[in-house]
Amino acid sequence: MLKTFIILFILSQLAFGGYQDNTEFDEKIKEIIRTRANGDVSFLRRFVNADGIPQGLGNRDGFNDSYCYNITERLLAHSKYADCTKLQSLNGSVVDLNLWTGFDIFKFSVNLLELKNVDVEMTYRTELTYLYFSAFRKCDNCLFNLTRNPALVGLRFWNLSHGNYLDTLSNEYRPKLLVRGNLRLKLSQGADRRKIEDLKKVCNKEMCEIQKNEECHFRHSIKNSDEYSNCRHVYGDMYFNSRFQESQPGTMDFRIDGCFVFNRTGIQFLRPIMRAFSNCSRSHLFFKNKYMCTDQLLELKDRWKSNNVNVTPADGMDVKCYQGECRGGFVSENVKDRYSGCEVIRGNVLVTEQSGNVSERVRDLSYAHVINGSLHLINNTSLKKLTLPFLKEIYSTQCPALVIQNMSNLTDIIFHSHIEFNCNSTGPKVLIRNSPKLYLYHQTLEQMRKAGAILDDFNSETDTYSENSTFYLVGLCVLIVIFVEIAWALRKNLLFPNWIYRIFPMSIKRKLKQKQPRKKKEE
Question: How far is CA 483 from each of CA 128, 472, 490, rounded to the nearest angstrom?
Fold first, then answer.
């Protein structure tokens, strides 16, 4: 039993590049030992030569390989072809490795000697796979299409890349290789580039496209920047849709052999995207991304050549981020830095119960000077204070310009002391309803009333206090000054406690006595 596990371990290492977590492979090995070798573990040694290199089973006793020749099928899906040492097709066939188990793929790679008019294809395979074509020697019109496999960890052509056999093989009989977009395929490590050099040496010059180390490929749309943060090379297009809501995406320090597609994303700043080196044969697509900076989009078109960038705007609004402008919209706790540093906001700003806890997000609005749109705060219980000390104007095309409704925990709103509320249509410019804890400062309240504000269910005591508090404070200050002046003037005639004189020491000016001349003594 111990020998069985030792050999299983060795084979799993050879076949899958050091990974030991392939249960299906191990179970298949046990089945082979039980059914074909009557439990004889030494049977597995036939897969490995004296040097430990995987090798095919060769011509087994009683094996009829007639079905491996003169093939007319277009797709070779049956696993029986994994036992063939030679595959020959009359009209061209494709071996789709995705339809086979891990052990069948292992058998196929170590058994295979020659191909004629047969392509080998494996794409999007998620089961850990190591392709070790150890004995392969000849390829007559064949292509190895190994692309976009997230779990391909190794690829070798041992017989072709070692020894002198390759010197006698003309270019037309060498395998064509298309190896791109395999995320975990590492062909070089530091200065050691032997694996990738071996592949380039054996491949046919008509098609010899081999990836760099761990080249990324994205089959589905990208949700966040973490998905590509470790990529240095990308094969294929990158799709961003409405699920991508980051205002400033992560820096794209990679080369992409494909195009970018941005469809209704929440991206605002494009500077991180400009760092990518793109090789796009068609056009990059930007479709209705309403938050994107117009000036940065023009800069990107100049850098990537305008005829290579196709832009469909969401509307006719220009947002110049380099001048401190931002696009308004829905404020959400899940979207960071949407309004950070914005001085002019173009469009409506909306906070609702779907916004979540936006206490941190509204701080980004504190730099705003002008909102060219309306400001709506509706049904949000997390927001307790809104501080916009520089906001001087809210200008909306439709009234009301400011709406505060059902904000049960909102206690303070701070605007610029001379804020203006303007809108072009008829109706109230300011509407406040059902916000019982809200306190309005005197200047803000006066500006709202000048704008014809409607204050429904507003606390009248808070309202009165906010109007009269300034007068009370001024009067109290005047009385305190008068009292201090009177006390200071009468401090010489009044008897105060000693501690007051220690704080305010009092000096008494006395006239100096004139010195009298001394009288001369009488003699």
Answer: 89, 17, 11
